[in-house]
Amino acid sequence: MSLYHKLRHHFDTGPLPFPETSTGVEIRLLQDFFSESDCRILLALGWVRITAEKCHERLRKDGAPEGALPLDELKARLDKLYVQGSISMKVKKGKKMYCIDPVAIGWYEHKVDFLTPKQVQMFYEYADQAFPGLWGGDGIGKGIPPQMRVLIHPEAINTQEQSASTGRVVDINESLTHKPTVASHDDVRRLLRGLPDDHLFVLVNCICKQSQDLVAKPCKVTDHRRHCMSMGTSAQAYLDRGQGTRISKEEAIKMLEWQIKEGLVLQCGNYADELREVCACCGCCCGVLTNAKKLKKPTDIFHVTYQAAIQDGQCKKCGTCAKRCQMDAIIQEGEGKEKKFHVDLDRCIGCGVCVSGCKSNAINLVKKQTYLPPSTKDDFVKQRLKHRHGLAGYIRFIFKALLGMRI
After folding, report:
1. Taking the domains of the chain in order of start, what are their residue ranges?
2. Would the pLDDT of 345 be above 90?
3. CATH 3.10.20.310: does it fit domain 3-101?
4. pTM for this structure?
């Protein structure tokens, strides 16, 4: 087995899969990103953070040439891989600790500003073949936690609350007693404003729109590129790599309002108690949305809490909702007086962009039967590992981690 096949398998053992394809494009992708020396270092790392000294020890035991390097030189190599976006690093008790990252969402996204057209084309080819296996999910956050959670478009929330008070929106399988219909983890305005004023906010280029530019397919929705936000500890890596710009909380709120005004779909990692990023996505560029649209049931790969419903009696048949929908979920039937619109619930991800654009208030959101997302990113990773490897495999994973073994 070649180093690159071993590395592909190594990435595939983690919380997020990296399945092989019939064409082997994933091997060509790895070959373009990593040298054979990089491969050996990545294979010495695992999913649990270790020091450069521990990595050095593993390389020596493997008989790898990098194990014969002076420790300071290996440390420089690890730092270079981190700055290139290839691995993860955190400082704990004054010591740098390293581990590998998943491929997507992971180190591929960390290559923003560094990508070449060739790499983008290969990744698109890979995603076209492997996307369902790469993402998984069941659309309701049970069993396999989907990687991404769709945040309700903030301008739709007022409509949602108002509709609930008039009895037009009810929770499925719930009583008709009114209660707040938008949970705090779905309200991005509330989440963002609730963060401390001194929290770390970093603005980065959208890798999806940047990738489309590299293959001469510019975004059809906006000319803006620097509009994705990262927050907290995950944001520091962008600054370390020179990819992001630190902004204040007030500037972050202004950027959110711009995202809202542009009618972009807002997504974040699928954990309820942490806001680490806000991605502003469109259906022509976003790697998640564009590949999900190819599936028969795109809702399967998102944590979807709400879905849109059109009130025929109030609909003015203007078609604005269909134009704003980034998932092609609003379908027109008939022409002239017979024209009407309906929502394809297999495609609607409940973002609320259509609701916020409807001047006749003919669309509202209906709450699905769903489950709370994992509380934190760590909880998300644990649930993913349990699903991928079963309870026994998860216990073995934890046991090896406690013993400092390679995993």
Report:
1. 3-101, 148-367, 381-407
2. yes
3. no
4. 0.89
